[in-house]
Amino acid sequence: MWFDLDTFVLxxxxxxxxxxxxxxxxxxxxxxxxxAWGLIAPLSIVVTVIAISVTAGSADVxxxxxxxxxxxxxxxxxxWAAHGARPWLALLVVPILLFALGSPDGPLGRLGRxxxxxxxxxTLGRLLAxxxxxTVLKVGVVAMTVIDSIFIFGHFxxxxxxxxxxxxxxxxxxxxxxAEIGQTATDYGDYFIAGLVGGILAADRRPQALAxxxxxxxxxxxxxxxxVTDHLPNTVPxxxxxxxxxxxxRRRAKVPA
Length: 257
What we know:
By secondary structure, this protein is mainly alpha-helical. The chain has helices at about 5-20, 40-55, 55-80, 95-100, 105-130, 135-155, 160-165, 190-205, 210-220, 235-255, and strands at about 180, 185.
């Protein structure tokens, strides 16, 4: 049986991304509703790879974007987007950010980076589930997972992925496009898809705590493939849980009352 504690911590954080998003968006954002938002998930991988393939400098731009946008996203999660959020909790992003800034690659710094990433994708999940048709978002989740799996299992673009993970805004600043615990790293996109699944489940009023536990269980089962390969797409477990809930609900709907 394959098990690694560092990987387990990162998987548990991904499960939290599924469990935490609440549902609903402010009324003024409803004017932005549209199907195009459903393309963000699959395009996030393709555009990132193409951009870095064209110029390695794109990775530096992306890591700066992450540094600028991830902390406010985490503050929004603490103050609004997550279950149990309270406006005053948004202030907790300050000490979390200080941990990340104080020692970006130390234990506390890495924990701070992970917390910032988780919070930001919780906000993204709630926002996207509020402005995009849920069916389109679900298709986008599956499409993102398929694309990610093709890239990883096909060993496409490993240099671009390594460049993206290694990019830093500047010396001493945290890399918020990737979470790291010990020697293990998980890309922002793997948390983004989990937050999106959480937002979808929240909007559908599905049991998110159960979904989070199932995501963690699916991740640990999926990790057994590390016995035969060195690389796995971490987008698969949350996508499998989403598909599982869809199948379950459709079967329940067919059962006569």
